[in-house]
Specification:
mainly alpha
């Protein structure tokens, strides 16, 4: 009997050994493909879970990095503010010292000028008082003593009286 091809054998109703192998291989391929599909679905599920976990972890790391950078930036801003305030304070203190020096010098000059003016005023007043007292003493001496005491002696008496008054601080 001549050999039938596979198609003839399939239609004849009796499977040949090749058909059996092919059928078996097909079933195994279907099972392997089914398992591969299940495994692929499982891997995809795990990948999605892994992606979600990785995404969450990356978000957490990003958040932590942002916080750290924020803290560093805040720290740097604080340091810059402190440095700026220190420089401002130094400038202010220098200007204050310069102003105090200028005011001190001006006050010293004003004090010296006032002291000089008081000294001049005092000298003028003492001279005026001396002149007035001298006139009064001369007038009094002439009235009291008249011409009984010589003028030279009168001048000596007046000079002594004025010197004594000056030593006692009458003219100050």
């Amino acid at each position: 009997m001549p050999k039938k091809n596979i198609i003839q054998q399939i239609f004849a109703g009796k499977p040949s050994s090749e058909e059996k192998i092919i059928n078996k291989a097909t079933r195994q391929a279907k099972r392997t493909i089914g398992k591969a599909v299940v495994k692929a679905e499982q891997i995809l599920g795990e990948t999605d879970l892994f992606n979600d976990l990785l995404k969450k972890e990356l978000q957490n790391e990003l958040h932590a990095a942002v916080l750290k950078n924020s803290e560093l930036f805040t720290s740097e801003m604080k340091q810059a503010a402190v440095e700026t305030l220190n420089k401002f304070q130094e400038t202010l203190e220098a200007q204050l010292a310069a102003s105090q020096k200028i005011l001190s010098e001006a006050a010293s000059q004003e004090y010296a000028a006032a002291k000089e003016e008081i000294k001049k005023y005092k000298t003028e007043k003492i001279a005026a008082i001396d002149a007035a007292v001298g006139q009064q003493v001369d007038k009094l001496a002439i009235e009291i003593l008249g011409e009984s005491i010589p003028i030279n002696f009168q001048n000596q008496i007046i000079t002594r009286i004025l010197e004594k008054a000056k030593k006692e601080g009458v003219f100050e």
